Amino acid sequence: MSGGDGSGGSDDVRVDLPLEEIGLSKHFHSWENLYTGQDGLALETIGVSKSFGAVKAVDRLTLAIPRKGMTSIVGPNGSGKSTLMNLLSGTLPLDGGLVVIDEVGLKVVKPYETPQHGLTRTFQEVRLFDQISVWDNIMVVLTERRPFAALLERSKPGHRQKARGILQSVGLWEKRDVMAQELSYGQRKLLEIGRAMALDVDTYLFDEPFAGLFPQMLERVKDLMKQIRDSGRTIVFVSHNMDIVRELSNRIIVLDSGQLLAEGDVEPVLGRPEVIEAYLGA
Ligand SMILES: Nc1ncnc2c1ncn2[C@@H]1O[C@H](COP(=O)(O)OP(=O)(O)OP(=O)(O)O)[C@@H](O)[C@H]1O
Ligand SMILES: [Mg+2]
Q1: Residue bearing the CA closest to ligand 1, atom 31
Q2: 8 C-alpha to ligand 2 centroid (Å)
Q3: What confidence score (pLDDT) does residue 143 get?
Q4: Are strands 251-256 and 69-74 parallel, antiparallel or unpaired?
Q5: CB within 10 Å: which end of the chain, N or C, has fewer?
Q6: Rounded (10°) angle between helices 215-230 and 185-199
Q7: Using an 8 Å Cβ cutoff, are 45 and 21 in contact?
Q8: Which parts of the chain are beta strand (E)?
Q9: For the segment 95-135, what is each residue's pLDDT rounded down to a tens digit?
Q10: How far is the CA of 124 from the centre of ligand 2 (A)?
Q11: For ligand 1, is residue 80 a contact (CB within 6 Å)?
């Protein structure tokens, strides 16, 4: 990649990068066509790439996610959705390109610093502290410390009140003393969302929050996401469930082979021939 090292801000970087190199030429005629949203952008990627050996999991991807509301990320299996989430959250290092979080351009996204940038995420394969209680899984986040320090601080009244509120909204208050590893799959998904809520950030990335859930759990996760959205936050979620994508998201991003196939308002995008073909061909 040629030119700017990012030190001059994202505008300088944009000018320095050839459009083909950052995957723009196929979809946009100019930067002016890029979506900026009424409330500005929560997230952008500019020419981000990630390969695993010969597999280009994310290939010069340039996209914009507006602040507030819900943006869904869809695409066939292996199209790069989780890799994109991993790059946005710093779970995986970028091979190239730039992630812009809350208007700060980053070539290196450090996962433990993303809450400071106002962002957190959940995983397709749920990640919790399995060996401690449901309650302590929330307290660890609230106290923003390593597990043992958090356990010592568990009596702080403000934290206790907040933990109780979160566990009640995710429906796990009755399970607060149970070890996380004893929860059902759906309850684990809820606890992971509870942990994300405890961070109290502006932008939430949820990778397949509905996968494998029974209808009742699914409704609960939907309600939680609506609650987070209605509090003025930004949600980005990956899903294969098109009914939910249609119901929840006001914007959609379609990936195919690590590249941007389409982005925009949900119904028009899902009706595009190339999008239909990508799904039927999968
Ligand atoms: N850690 C890894 N090591 C090697 N290859 C990987 C790794 N992670 C992803 N890949 C490959 O990168 C490509 C994109 O994978 P990714 O998990 O991002 O897809 P996805 O769109 O999330 O798929 P799914 O809908 O099945 O969750 C796939 O070919 C996958 O096999
Ligand atoms: Mg995935």
Answers
A1: 78
A2: 34
A3: 81
A4: parallel
A5: C
A6: 10
A7: no
A8: 41-52, 55-66, 69-74, 96-101, 104-106, 119-122, 203-207, 234-238, 251-256, 259-264
A9: 999 999 888 888 898 888 888 888 998 988 888 889 999 99
A10: 6
A11: yes
Ligand of minimum distance to the alpha carbon of 74: 1
Instruction: For residues 29 and 185, give the distance between their C-alpha atoms in angstroms, rounded to a whole number.
Output: 45
Residue ranges of domains in the chain? 1-28+35-118+235-282
The number of the ligand 1 atom at minimal distance from the alpha carbon of 86 is 18
Q: How far apart are CA 148 and CA 223, in angstroms?
A: 32
Residue type, 27: H
Please measure the distance between the N-terminal and C-terminal CA atoms of the chain and give it in whole angstroms: 32
By the 8 A CB rule, do 88 and 237 touch? no
Looking at the CA of residue 92, tell me the nearest atom of ligand 1: 1
CA of 213 to the centre of ligand 1 (A): 22
Indicate the angle between helix axes 134-142 and 157-169, nearest 10 degrees: 120
CATH code of the region 1-28+35-118+235-282? 3.40.50.300
What is the atom index within ligand 1 of the atom nearest the CA of 79?
21
Parts of the chain with a pLDDT under 70: 1-37, 144-155, 280-282
